[in-house]
Known about the structure:
44% of the residues lie in helices and 23% in strands. By secondary structure, the protein is of the alpha/beta class. Strands 4-3-2-5-6-9-8 form a 7-stranded mixed beta sheet, sandwiched between helices. The longest helix is centred in the middle third of the chain and has 13 residues, at 154-166. It is globular and about 45 Å long.
Amino acid sequence: MPFAYYSRAATTQFWSEHWGGHSVEELLRVAQTSPLTSLLEQHLPRQGSILEAGCGLGQYVLLLRKRGYQAVGVDWSAEAVAEGCRAGAPLAVMDLRRLGVPDGLLAAYVSLGVVEHDPEGPQVILTEAARVLTRGGTVLVSVPYWNGLRRLAGPLLAWRNRRVRAAGGHFYQFAFTRAELGALLEAHGFSVRGFHAYDPARILRGALLRLSDRGREEMSLPAPGEGPPRWGASRALRALLYSGPGLRFFGHMLLAVGIRR
């Protein structure tokens, strides 16, 4: 079973407030240099329509279109969609569980850190993803990764979540192992082609922020999605975080690549 986190429910109001704290320009600058962007471009088809489901302000839609992809986006936050549209992104308000998209229209479906927030699980969203993809179409889905560090801290995380839930906290998201995410995709009509862990600095950065701003600056760890640590960090730390074992142990997110059967 995926691990469930509790805090504040990820409602439309939550996401409108979350995206309201950012700008399209800021997020677009991050996306331009993010290792995640390189991962996406390794797998996205050059021909055919691409949907980013849960696009937020649409920074990836804008970036992919600038790079020649036929990308559009949908999100359930009307405020986020309106802001992205003002920046020139072709976005629409939709519920990912009931997309207003014809069967088999899309060449690729991208969802980055979205499906884990449904308290019923991602099954309905993935069913819709399979419906709107053409046979042979590409699915790229990322979720919080139940990595090595989180496995070690599992009892502590479970204790914390019980306390939060008892104090009135609501379901926020699931975290998945590779096996759990792969099984979900296979069960919904996809053949899994691979996994990529990413954003290994997120966990360490969060810990350093809790300790002190000074500690974060000394380590020079990047903001989420910003890319590898800058040269202010030791080369040893950089090599550790972005090695295969480092990503499996520290990777904050897990990207799965699949093909619609």
